[in-house]
Amino acid sequence: GRIIGGIVAQDGQFPWQVAIYFDTPDGTYFCGGALIDLNATVFTLHLGANSLVTDDPNRVTIGASYSVPHPDYNPNSLANDIGLIRIDTVIELNEYIQIIPLPTSALGSGQAVTLSGWGATGDGVVNDLTYVDLSTISNADCQAIYGEVIEDSMVCVVGKSNEGPCSGDNGGPLVITDGVNNAVHVGVVSWTSASGCETDHPSGFTRTASYISWIQSVIS
Questions:
Q1: In terms of pLDDT, which residue wins out, 27 or 120?
Q2: 61 pairs with which residues across the strands?
Q3: What are the residue ranges spanned by the domains of the chain?
Q4: Does 1.10.10.10 match the CATH number of domain 100-210?
Q5: How far is CA 103 from each of CA 153, 184, 213, rounded to the nearest angstrom?
Q6: Selection from 124, 121, 107, 119 nearest residue 162 by Cα
Q7: Which one is predicted more confidently, 35 or 39?
Q8: Which segments does the entry list as coiled coil (predicted)?
Q9: Which of 89, 182, 183, 187 is in Cβ range 3.0-4.6 Å of 178 for a Cys bridge?
Q10: Do domains 17-99+213-219 and 100-210 have the same CATH topology?
């Protein structure tokens, strides 16, 4: 997994970022996530860390009780590609571990957004949290490329020079940010172009605003 064109984040720059590890019969898998509530995010969590190496002093590792995928998730179309995990462990917030608010309004086109996640800035894998600034496009423009598979509950983004997510960054948060204290969670990494991560094709995200009622019903 890698964020194409990513910049290494500073300590505490994305304090809601979560690294998620989960075990299956086929092996251990990794994806990204965000802390949206003291009782909800996703699988085994490594909170507060900018690095995936074990000696990061800001790391907090906790377990999760159970996952809640969206009941209408479609693995073929990737509609409703969103899920939550309930946390039973008490989380202490600090400058490196913070909850990110959910949106209160719809996300428009031409909006400056930021994606963060672990991976690489090129072809190799790295341990540092990286980020990239992107821009949303209209669903109509995205449908012109991908067709009717683009639903209202999805949002597409592009970079200035092919920046964006790649495989392994699924679940990572897309945010509107004006400093740490003014960030809002607006999307979740869902898919990238079948033509490859470093094309100029848009990447697809699940719109957080489309699932506020469902999220609140799970975490309440």
A1: 27
A2: 46
A3: 17-99+213-219, 100-210
A4: no
A5: 14, 6, 12
A6: 121
A7: 35
A8: none
A9: 182
A10: yes
> What are the DSSP E strand ranges found in 80-128?
83-86, 112-118
Let me know the angle formed at the C-alpha of 128 by 127 and 129, rounded to the nearest 5 degrees: 125
Q: Is 139 helix (H, G, I), strand (E, B) or coil?
A: helix
pLDDT of amino acid 170: 72
Distance CA 192, CA 117 (A): 15
86 CB burial (10 A radius; 0-12, 13-18, 19+): middle
Query: Nearest CA to 36 among 94, 77, 86, 89?
Result: 86
- Report d(CA 41, CA 48) in Å as an integer: 13
Q: How long a stretch of residues is the chain? A: 220
- 41 touches 31 (CB < 8 A): no
| CA–CA dist 84, 79 (Å, integer) | 16
Whether residue 167 contacts residue 215, with contact meaning beta carbons closer than 8 Å, is answered with no
Sheet containing strand 40-41, edge to edge, reads: 40-41, 83-86, 66-69
Query: The domain 17-99+213-219 belongs to what CATH superfamily?
Result: Trypsin-like serine proteases (2.40.10.10)
- Tell me the pLDDT tens digit for each residue of 134-184: 999 999 999 999 999 999 999 999 887 655 666 556 778 999 987 656 899
Question: How far is the C-alpha of 8 from the C-alpha of 137, rounded, in Å?
Answer: 25
As a whole number of angstroms, the distance between CA 100 and CA 25 comes to: 32
Take residue 132 and report the two structure tokens written for it.
């990239």
